[in-house]
Automatic annotation (TrEMBL):
Pfam families: BacA
Enzyme Commission number(s) of this protein: 3.6.1.27
Keyword line: Antibiotic resistance, Cell membrane, Cell shape, Cell wall biogenesis/degradation, Hydrolase, Membrane, Peptidoglycan synthesis, Transmembrane, Transmembrane helix
Protein name, as recorded: Undecaprenyl-diphosphatase
HAMAP family for this protein: Undec_diphosphatase
Biological function: Catalyzes the dephosphorylation of undecaprenyl diphosphate (UPP). Confers resistance to bacitracin.
Organism superkingdom: Bacteria
Organism, scientific name: Sharpea azabuensis
Catalysis: reaction(s): di-trans,octa-cis-undecaprenyl diphosphate + H2O = di-trans,octa-cis-undecaprenyl phosphate + phosphate + H(+)
Amino acid sequence: MLKYLISILFGIVEGITEWLPISSTGHMILLNQFISLEKLTSPQFYSMYEVVIQLGAILAVVVIFWKQIWPFRNDSKETGYKRYVNMDIIDLWLKILLACVPAAIIGILFDDWIDAHLYNYWVVAIALIVFGVGFIIIENKNKDLSPKIHSLKTLNGKTALLIGVFQVIAAVFPGTSRSGATILGGLMLGVSRTVAAEFTFFLAIPVMFGASLLKIAKFGLAFTSTEIMVLLVGCIVAFVTSMIVIKFLMGYIKKHDFKVFGWYRIVLGLIVLIYGIVTTL
């Protein structure tokens, strides 16, 4: 029962931090230090769990934005239903896949090395602080500027690819925040907050599915019944929490900037840094 309760907590944290630009991986690493699911299962299972639980969060994006990401349509006419393909959505998916290429290459080549060398307090703390400062600087710089890109349709392939390059930073350094890196990159490239957030959500779909499949393949299919239930509980809770958080964030950014998340990252990064120093003394 304790495993399931902890998985519920992890699902809540994942659902909140995956979409707010405050680093889900960083929070999961820290949470596991205080309430360790890894010790109740195994290091191999937990390494897979902390990635695959993101599938629950991804499903929330699919449900909320279904009409914006599903290109196949049935158009009702007097003579019956006419099937057609929305080419604007196909174009969007081409941009999403293009933006995925840099992170996919890095993930496939260096996934094990990154896990072994960069998943620690120091990297998380520095990434939290650096990108927190980045959000504040960029938002102050853009305060009186008008975004150049106001819709997903006007987001060109070059800009999509550059946003994908920012995603590589998050793939390498835990604590950066995948959503934080891509949103910040979008803002720097003249993309509006709403478009940057939506593109980030959509970009997460292939990225997280790919990362999850990679982790499951490395773990194998030798799940125990308890492990399956622990993973399902985490995914379901992450899905429900994500539904709430995504809707909140899309409403929030219509009236506010991202600076509050920048300050949160800086404070949390300093706490992590102090904790890391104290525990090593």
